[in-house]
Amino acid sequence: MKTLIVEDDFISRRILAQMLSPYGACDIAINGEEAFLAFKLALDESAPYDLICMDIMMPHMNGQDALKLVRALEKERGIPEAQGVKVFMTSAKEGPRDVVEAMDQGGATVYIVKPIGKQKLLQELRILGLID
Questions:
Q1: Which of 3, 86, 90, 126 has minimal CB crowding within 10 Å?
Q2: Mean pLDDT throughout 101-126?
Q3: What stretch of H or E contains 120?
Q4: Mutual orientation of helices 10-20 and 118-127 as an angle, nearest 10°?
Q5: pLDDT of 69-90, one tens digit each?
Q6: CB 104: neighbour CB atoms within 10 A?
Q7: Could you tell me the CA-to-CA distances from 63 to 46, 124, 126 in Å, in that order?
């Protein structure tokens, strides 16, 4: 599994990398702009990500805006929705408005409230068939 971790907080990046690295390569981006560039580069190199774990609240470009760009690029490249990258949006915010914006409007696959528990993360990965 190839993963892109998008998080502006060093500790959160490190924790996610520790949880996900046993299952494959993990790349890091510190904001939505870097995330979109990494995603586009991976597609251009025919080595797309299987998973993006993306924080919502980040400087320069937030996770919601980056996710919209990711989904638009997939559509532009003719990638069917079911075959698109799985995106776990992470946030300390758990209000219904935030969840709806990420899931329904943004195209997130899963919404996880911080702090992220390892069991919850692995459970979602298993449900999606990304790990055994």
A1: 126
A2: 86
A3: helix 118-127
A4: 50
A5: 999 999 999 999 889 999 999 9
A6: 9
A7: 23, 19, 23
54: which strand partners? Answer: 6, 89
**pLDDT: which is higher, 105 or 121:** 121
Peptide bond into 115 cis (omega under 30): yes
Supply the Cα-derived Rg of the chain in whole angstroms: 13
Identify the CATH class of 3-127.
Answer: alpha beta
3-state secondary structure of 29: strand
- CA 130 – CA 132 distance, rounded (Å): 7
Let me know how long the chain is. Answer: 132
CA angle at 31 for the pair 29 and 35, rounded to the nearest 5°: 50
Give the rounded distance of the alpha carbon of 53 from its chain centre: 3
Bridge partners of residue 55, in order along the sequence:
90
Give the rounded percent of residues in the chain with a pLDDT score beyond 70: 92
